[in-house]
Design a protein that fits this description.
The complex is a heterotrimer of chains A (369), B (289) and C (285).
Chain A lengths: L2 E11 L5 E11 L3 E5 L6 H9 L6 E6 L2 E2 L10 E4 L11 H12 L3 H14 L15 H13 L5 E5 L7 H18 L2 E6 L2 H7 L2 E6 L2 E6 L1 H6 L4 H6 L4 E11 L2 E6 L2 E6 L10 E6 L5 E3 L10 E12 L3 E8 L4 E7 L15 E6 L4 E5 L5
Helix pairs in contact in A: 2-3, 2-4, 3-4
Chain B lengths: L1 H35 L3 E3 L2 E3 L5 H8 L1 H35 L3 H12 L6 H12 L4 H8 L14 H26 L2 H9 L4 H29 L3 H7 L6 H9 L5 H25 L9
Antiparallel strand pairs in B: 1-2
Helix pairs in contact in B: 2-3, 2-12, 3-7, 3-9, 5-7, 5-10, 7-9, 7-10, 8-9, 9-12, 11-12
Chain C lengths: L1 H9 L4 H10 L3 H30 L16 H7 L2 H34 L5 H13 L2 H15 L5 H26 L3 H8 L4 H29 L3 H6 L6 H11 L3 H26 L4
Helix pairs in contact in C: 3-13, 4-13, 5-8, 5-10, 5-12, 6-8, 8-10, 9-10, 10-13
Chain lengths: 369, 289, 285
């Protein structure tokens, strides 16, 4: 399975604005589910639209399935886009919307009708075939948009923030449905979203973007456990980002000083000298509470602090702890049969926190991304 | 880049036709008229020339500048009168009619006469105001007067009435748009703070409706300036307006250069008014491009 | 207790709240009535002349005096058998339809150009395109007359059509432009995405969505052309349009047939206008 999409050095600047897409190069393999993830303005939507043919790059090339399509308009590309606001034709019925692509392709009426009803069955909207888009809910509109895009059997399906118009429960259901659809159809999906949960749940691979550039590209687990920059660390999941400096360097680990206390961390292959400024990144759920009188697991780093407050999250409690030196640290503790909120240390009490050095990520302190 | 080339080609195809038309039928005619205004007329011929004699005549000959001043006066009167009648009507529609349906129906009822034969609507006033007309016969019938009064028709008074009547809908439209745009909670907040009904109107509603008022009055003023039908129908000898003078220059007087000069003067006045009111205007007019 | 007090204040449909308002602003009731009177008066003023026209077209009297004499259709008879007038009406239809076609051919591309493209001279183009509806028609008429004269062209119905086309294009541009601005262009991209070439997108997606605006504005332009006077006055040749015919008839004196034909025109225009307003107000198909 080769690359179905290759982007080479794409650049795009809109009139007067900063570079929307700044030297983006990316390979996507056939059958992958790739998500472009980032905040608004990071260039992900523009990149998607360049793939679809709706924006022309100032420089760079787009190669689809071995063919250079950079100069080709959307109607000559074997990709289809599901728009963020669905873009259903308001003057046509659902069936006519779905069948539009086939009608343009010149297929016969009976064949169109057959494929349209099969499509509508697939997205579970057969009984709405004669309705107008204005009569549908957002969830239904989205399914029509999907059916309409997929009926032409494109090699790549592009999705522009497909779930942003849906409410929470529907969104969670659609995340699963889209993932199943991808597995069933076997075609390549390229999705754009600012919601990192969606990206983590649905994608084979995530491409994090910021200010028009690709920051990191990897599997969800890669990005979560080994973020390349503090920006990625805080964009995907939450992170404690603590400023500090290097105290010791010993083989595969180093010891950093944060807020007056020492933390042992894995080195991540960074070449750092003693005294260098660093940002220490620890995910809240990786921090453990050491019970008073007990000792931390062997090899774990420990720090002490004072509890500020608790935030109740239903299945977990997030504690804000102030370490010596004024640094605040968030700790996520899962509430289960063994642990209840009432047994947690109250505000004002001293606590000892422990963390496995392998879960402590260190970045050389530079900018934020 | 072929896509942007394609787009440029499409643009050329779409724009070129209208552009050529505009040049041929708007730009060039105005240019020709401007040129004509400098020609001189040596009876019976019209000689291409470049002299400002026509403009001089307009300024020095009372026959012309008096008519011009009279026209300006009537245009102002009409704009004000139409405003006085249109504003309360519009205000009532926007603020006192709660049902949106009823409001739309009434609004349309006000606007519709606008599109119904201007000539006929002006003509009806002839039948109403004439000495053998409805008004006089009504007054005689009810015994208020004994003889038909001839002061109603063929006077500047009659012209102002007719033109006001014609242009009321022109004022209702932008004022309606402007008043509708005023957020209701501004007025409610004002009343909430204890400000009286009348004060609220003076300090909030009225100022916010000024753009609409300006738009409507400008429109009315400019169109009244160029009207020759009303003077013809009900103006009488005393009610000649500048448009009629222009009419004559292109008709029996056969003084096209002078007529063109007059038209240019009208054009300049109208454009000046429009530009001036554009500066103050923010809402109420359709903005293109 | 406090909750009900708040609902009292902000609930518009609550009668008690109205009483509170009245108690605070006593004179409101009086000025409300005065306002209603002014509004009613205004509406009456607007419609009385039209009513006079209609009533007297059926009145059995040569002059328009009160009291009314009797019901008759004789003026209608005379009006409808008047050969000159019928010829003028036919000419008006011919001119009107031709002018509308012209306006659409120029106006629709203009609206698209203003909505979608940036081209050199766009601001000037916009100004000129809208000029004819802001300037008195007289000026447009004279300007074009001068040009035709300079070109050595004779005046005829054709010159009238050209004049109307130029003057009324602005109406088409404003209406179609407004519709285009409300139009969500995403559906055009979707159409292109699904394989449609630009002309296909235009015919299958764009046009159907602005159709009501085009029809509405066509009806409006037709009505305006049918009644057009200032531009027509200067550009007409030997054949008359209806307004020109009426104009010259009035010059000779009031005849009751004018009331009859006037009523017919009023009713006809009303129907056309209401139809076009209905269509122009439709949001989506």
């Amino acid at each position: 399975m080769g690359n179905i999409i290759e982007l080479h050095g794409l650049r795009k600047t809109f009139k007067g604005k900063v570079r929307a897409v700044d030297d983006v190069s990316l390979n996507i393999r056939e059958g992958e589910f790739v998500t472009l993830l980032g905040p608004s303005g990071c260039g992900k939507t523009t990149t998607l639209r360049v793939i679809g043919g709706f924006e022309e790059p100032d420089s760079g090339r787009v190669v689809l399935d071995g063919q250079d399509v950079t100069d080709l308009p959307p109607y000559h590309r074997p990709v289809n886009l599901v728009f963020q606001d669905f873009a259903l034709f308001p003057h046509m019925s659902v069936a006519q919307n779905v069948g539009y692509g086939l009608r343009i392709a010149g297929l016969g009426k009976s064949e169109i009708a057959e494929r349209v009803s099969a499509s509508l069955r697939m997205v579970d909207l057969s009984e709405k075939a004669g309705n107008r888009p204005s009569e549908l809910s957002n969830g239904q509109k989205q399914r029509v948009a999907l059916a309409r895009a997929l009926i032409r059997r494109p090699k790549v399906l592009l999705l522009d923030e497909p779930l942003s118009a849906l409410d929470l429960k529907l969104r969670e259901a659609m995340q699963v449905e889209l993932k199943h659809l991808h597995e069933k159809l076997g075609i390549t999906f390229v999705m754009v979203t600012h919601d990192q949960t969606e990206a983590l749940v649905m994608s084979d691979r995530i491409v994090v973007m910021s200010n028009g550039k690709i920051i990191q590209d990897g599997t969800p687990a890669d990005l979560y456990d080994r973020p390349a920059t503090p920006y990625v660390a805080n964009f995907i999941g939450s992170s404690n980002l603590l400023a500090g400096e290097v105290r010791e360097v010993q083989g595969g680990t180093l010891v950093g000083q944060v807020g007056g206390q020492r933390i042992r961390a894995a080195r991540n292959g960074l070449a750092l000298e003693v005294g260098a400024a660093i940002t220490v990144c620890i995910r809240p759920e990786k921090i453990q509470l050491v019970a008073p009188g007990a000792s931390a697991p062997t090899g774990f780093s420990t720090v002490s602090g004072v509890v500020d407050e608790h935030f109740f999250h239903g299945n977990a409690v997030r504690m804000a702890v102030t370490l010596s030196g004024g640094v605040t640290c968030l700790v996520d503790l899962r509430l289960d049969s063994a642990l209840r909120q009432s047994s947690l240390p109250e505000a004002g009490s001293s606590v000892t926190l422990a963390v496995d050095p392998a879960n402590v990520i260190v970045f050389a302190a530079r900018g934020s991304a | 880049m072929r896509q942007s080339q394609r787009r440029r080609l499409a643009m050329f195809g779409v724009v070129s036709g209208p552009l050529l038309w505009m040049i041929a039928f708007l730009f060039i005619p105005y240019a020709v008229m401007f040129a004509y205004s400098f020609y001189s007329r040596q009876f019976p011929a019209i000689i291409p020339d470049f002299q400002a004699g026509n403009y001089l005549t307009l300024v020095t000959d009372p026959q012309y500048y008096q008519v011009l001043l009279r026209t300006l006066k009537i245009a102002v009167l009409v704009s004000l009168a139409a405003l006085v009648i249109a504003y309360p009507l519009t205000y009532y529609l926007v603020f006192k009619i709660k049902s949106v349906r009823l409001r739309s129906v009434l609004y349309i009822a006000v606007i519709v006469p606008l599109w119904v034969s201007y000539l006929l609507r002006a003509y009806t006033w002839k039948t109403i105001l004439g000495s053998e007309g409805v008004l006089n016969s009504f007054l005689i019938w009810t015994g208020i007067i004994d003889e038909p009064a001839s002061i109603f028709l063929y006077s500047q008074f009659a012209m102002v009435i007719v033109l006001t009547y014609i242009y009321i809908p022109f004022l209702v439209m932008p004022v309606y748009t402007a008043l509708e745009k005023i957020p209701r909670n501004l007025i409610e907040a004002s009343k909430d703070l204890g400000v009286g009904h009348w004060q609220t109107f003076l300090k909030i509603t009225l100022p916010l409706s000024v753009p609409g008022i300006l738009a409507g009055m400008t429109f009315t003023f400019c169109l009244t300036m160029g009207d020759f039908v009303a003077p013809f129908l009900v103006g009488g000898p005393d009610g000649l307006m500048i448009a009629n003078v222009v009419q004559v220059q292109f008709g029996t007087a056969f003084n096209w250069p002078l007529g063109s000069a007059l038209s240019i003067v009208m054009l300049v006045i109208v454009l000046a008014i429009i530009t001036a009111s554009d500066r103050f205007e923010r809402a109420g007019r359709l903005d293109l491009g | 207790m406090t909750e009900s007090a708040t609902t009292l204040r902000t609930d518009p449909g609550n009668g008690l709240a109205d009483v509170r308002r009245w108690r605070r602003f006593g004179p409101v009731k009086l000025s409300d009535h005065a306002l209603m009177l002014a509004a009613g008066g205004g509406l009456l003023f607007l419609y009385t002349p039209i009513l006079v026209l209609i009533i007297f077209s059926f009145n059995d009297n040569r002059v328009t005096t009160l009291p009314l004499r009797g019901f008759t259709l004789v003026w209608y008879e005379r009006a409808l058998t008047n050969g000159d007038m019928l010829a003028a009406i036919l000419n008006s239809f011919y001119v009107g339809i031709s002018a509308v076609v012209l306006c659409l051919l120029i106006g629709v591309p203009s609206a698209f150009a203003l909505d979608r493209f940036d081209f050199p001279g766009k601001a000037l183009f916009r100004r000129f395109a809208l000029l004819p509806i802001t300037l008195p028609g007289l000026i447009t008429g004279i300007a074009m007359l001068n040009m035709f004269r300079a070109m050595g062209m004779d005046l005829s119905l054709m010159t009238v059509i050209l004049g109307h086309g130029t003057a009324l294009t602005a109406v088409v541009i404003t209406q179609v432009f407004a519709r285009l601005q409300r139009f969500n262009r995403n559906v055009e991209e979707a159409s292109s995405d699904l394989g449609a070439k630009p002309w296909q997108t235009f015919f299958f997606v764009t046009l159907p969505n602005i159709r009501s605006a085009i029809i509405g504005t066509s009806l409006l332009s037709f009505t305006l052309s049918f009644d057009e006077i200032p531009v027509t006055f200067f550009l007409i040749g030997r054949e008359n349009t209806l307004p020109m015919y009426i104009y010259s008839t009035i010059r000779r004196g009031i005849t009751p047939e004018i009331n009859a034909i006037g009523t017919l025109i009023v009713v006809g225009s009303l129907v056309l206008i209401l139809l076009s307003v209905y269509l122009l107000m439709k949001e989506d198909e």
